[in-house]
Amino acid sequence: MENQALQLELLGMNEQVQHAERTSEQIEKLYADAVEATHNISRANVQLDKAIRTNRSARKYMIVFFLVASLALLFLDWWNS
């Protein structure tokens, strides 16, 4: 009777150890995924900064273009009148 109780207890402990090992593997995978996600976020931030700088530059060129085009139209209108 006592032998069976000990065997059942050992089986229960063995299952707990196996569960702990599986959980440990899952935690390690989650950690690796978190590190990779952090790296991807850092790269994305660099790309966003680059896009913001490019957008600022393009906006300046568009403003200059429309200003020059407007002044040219005003000049041509004045010249023809």
TrEMBL record:
The chain crosses the membrane at residues 61-79. It is found in: Membrane. It comes from the Eukaryota. It holds the Pfam family SNARE. Residues 26-76 form the T-SNARE coiled-coil homology domain. Keywords: Coiled coil, Membrane, Protein transport, Transmembrane, Transmembrane helix, Transport. InterPro entries: T_SNARE_dom (IPR000727). One of its GO terms (cellular component) is endoplasmic reticulum. Its main location: membrane. Signal peptide: none annotated. One of its GO terms (biological process) is protein transport. This is t-SNARE coiled-coil homology domain-containing protein. It is a single-pass type IV membrane protein. Belongs to the syntaxin family.
